[in-house]
Amino acid sequence: MAMAARRLLFSSSHLRPLAAAPHRRKHDAVSCKSTGKARTGTSTKPKDSGAGKWRPQRRALEEHLKRRTRSAGAFDADLYRRHSHSHHVPVLLGEVLAAFRRPLPLRSFVDCTLGAAGHSLAMMEAHPEMELHIGMDVDPSALEIGQRHVEAFLASRATDGGDSLQGVLRAYTHVKNFKYIKHVLGGVDESLLADSSGVDGILIDLGMSSMQVNRSDRGFSVLHDGPLDMRMDPKATLTAEDILNSWPELEVGRILRDYGEESNWQSLQRRIVKARQAGGLHSTGELVKLIQRSCTISGGRQGWIKTATRVFQALRIAVNDELRILEDTLHSCFDCLATDGRLAVISFHSLEDRIVKQTFLELIHGDGVDDGDEDLVCTDIDDEDEPWFKQRVKGMNGIILTKRPITPSQEEEKLNQRCRSAKLRVIQKA
């Protein structure tokens, strides 16, 4: 048949958020409080705060750290234009394509966070040999947009006669959290879960899409007033409002400290609990005002925004139990890979990246691997076909292709400022 097989199947799951175990780390976040103005003296030098004196050095250090892992690939502006739209700009798109260029023909691919399908459409375009595509997303509104884009691609491919030359591409979509990947694959084709089978490629993009952040009714944005929701799955029961108004004081503080890495967490915790006496917090605008009051005026707009971003991040992680689910999902995805299949993960903050890094080490070496052990098996590779993966970590069960995570190029950052904190790690199954 010359027509593409368009099997867009829909299912839904009811996620019940669980309290996540704390992921502790050193708290290196900078408090939103200013150290105050310098005392007036006879010097003619401009007044500056204690924090201000270190700001240039901090920026230089951050830029130095980013340069070590920046993408070395040529930036393809046309690629981003073709697969970006008003809903979302896919992050590290060229690097993701490079990650799956080898070693297998990509006949089966799973996008665990389909969203607007930017990454998926680029993968379909780059791999005409693809026979099976599965897109998952816990957000039904995001999945609906991605589904339309996949349908349009398949229709266009059929019109151009691509299927007669390249074979039929079966495409499925599922409203499911990515922790259910084994269940989804088993429902599509039980042979995919067999020891001798598996899928060739899996992608997880942990970032918030623009279509989610820009909708005030979802409660994710610090700049738009809306309900304190923050559920990725609208059918879930726990909301940010529940945590702020009814969870124990110590739990609220733990969330701000461990998930938001907020050094001013104790002051914020007290203010949140005190707000309950006046009726509680019921909108993102009320929470932002509380955060603004906890920051001094001299901190400026950026001061409270950075603190608010950390607080919102912490609440979102707690509401959706993101860290525990991520670790479990990485194990499930690795199990679902075929031999030489690859799993790529894009993370956006240090808590996620640390979990991905440590879990990858556990997957290739086994449980109980320390961070320092990776240096014992690191190999330097000079591969013109895969310049992205210059340092690899080999283990009994696979290879980590990115000893250091890949970060966006400067050209991509100019195009999409929201990509600045993105980190890509890739693992290959033995």
From TrEMBL:
InterPro entries: RsmH, SAM-dep_MeTrfase_MraW_recog, SAM-dependent_MTases_sf. Keywords: Methyltransferase, S-adenosyl-L-methionine, Transferase. It comes from the Eukaryota. GO terms for molecular function: rRNA (cytosine-N4-)-methyltransferase activity. One of its GO terms (biological process) is rRNA base methylation. SUPFAM superfamilies: Putative methyltransferase TM0872, insert domain, S-adenosyl-L-methionine-dependent methyltransferases. Residues 19-58 are annotated as: Disordered. Pfam families: Methyltransf_5. Gene3D superfamilies: Putative methyltransferase TM0872, insert domain, Vaccinia Virus protein VP39. Belongs to the methyltransferase superfamily. RsmH family. This is Uncharacterized protein. It comes from Brachypodium distachyon (Purple false brome).
